[in-house]
Write a structure and sequence with these properties.
By secondary structure, the chain is mainly beta. The chain folds into 2 domains: 52 residues, no CATH class; 112 residues, Sandwich (Immunoglobulin-like). 0% of the residues lie in helices and 65% in strands. The N and C termini lie far apart (70 Å).
């Protein structure tokens, strides 16, 4: 340390934590500590205390996703339309993505989907998405497996939060373009 022509080339001292409490993601809820610093090995000391008593940490984002048990298979373009809801405890934009898989007449049919929805606490937000079949075989009337993943950024901590669900969905024929 130095200032006004004075200097301290060698520092010694200690820092003692007597109480500490953390919240999620390193949030410091409480800290009580004392310190002592000596310059150039002298007996004179700089002493002090630190006391932090922050309010309770903000709640972490809680995210949920569900898949509806009914969907549609378009007879015009072969796409599968599926949906469900997302729930949250803070207002966030939620990305929902996943895969739809079906075995029809010994043929594996797969497709992926992605959509986004604004979620507000208190009521589930509906989402709908369309999966394109990856091959030449269209999605058929009948059962499919739907894997869903909801992803959002926690507004208080900046962390990515995910929720997943896998469900069996029954597709009905639809004569509309997805």
């Amino acid at each position: 340390m130095d200032g006004n022509g004075r200097g301290c080339n060698t520092l010694t001292g200690s820092f003692h934590v007597t109480d500490v409490a953390f919240g999620p993601h390193g949030y410091v809820r409480k800290l009580d500590a004392s310190y002592e610093q000596h310059c150039e090995g002298g007996s004179a000391a700089l002493r002090g205390e630190v006391h932090i008593d922050n309010p309770a940490p903000p709640t972490e984002l809680d995210l949920g996703v569900s898949v509806a048990v009914k969907g549609k298979a378009s007879t015009l373009d072969g796409k599968a339309t599926i949906g469900g809801t997302v729930s949250c405890n803070a207002p966030v934009k939620v990305d929902v993505s996943g895969n739809v898989t079906q075995v029809a007449k010994k043929v594996l049919i797969k497709g992926s989907y992605a959509t986004a929805v604004d979620c507000v606490p208190g009521a589930p937000a509906a989402w709908t998405a369309t999966a394109d079949p990856t091959g030449t075989t269209p999605f058929q009337k009948g059962q499919v497996k739907v894997d869903a993943q909801a992803t959002a950024t926690d507004p208080n901590y900046g962390e990515t939060v995910t929720a997943t669900q896998t469900a069996v969905v029954t597709l009905a024929k639809s004569r509309t373009v997805s």
